[in-house]
Protein: VOC domain-containing protein
Organism: Cafeteria roenbergensis
Amino acid sequence: MMSSRALRACRSLAAGRAGVGAAACGLSRALVAVGATATGAVALAASSASCAGARAGSSIPPFHLAIPVHDLEEAKAFYGEVLGLSEGRSSAKWQDYSLFGHQLVVHYVGEAYRGPEWFNPVDGDEVPVPHFGAALSVEDFHALAKRLRQHKTKFIIEPHLRFKGQPGEQYTMFFKDPSGNSLEFKAMTNPNNLFAKYHVED
């Protein structure tokens, strides 16, 4: 049965919040930019599964993202246990995960692979590029940050509020998976401003 939080998010999506872009039910509205407790892990997996079911009737198609990794077992531990994503199909060379109702695939490309190390300044932070992740609610952002800290995740950019007082005001955090792929999770203080058009002064 879908949680009340997932149901509310899906109802918001159905009501026409297509302006929030690649929206997802449950814990997040997923957004690609290229990327605890046992009870928390179960809730996250259940939310992701509920969203996948709800998405089947949605007009917004799920995105598909494939990323390289150097070790599938380490990827499984990170995406399956640390982030709590539900695993789908897999082979000896790749694994599928539901990233809040969207399809993330990790592909083994060899032990030598490590993610690129490019950066771009954003509101005083050196943001790693490329990166991917999800736009969450503020509540779920802080819950995920707590979960990551419980798993001793090393942050590239610690959870904090940026673009204060601007339409793009948001909480953000950056970290890497075991293969060096960068992830960002964010939360708009006003979710309707996720795609607000305005000029940002660097």
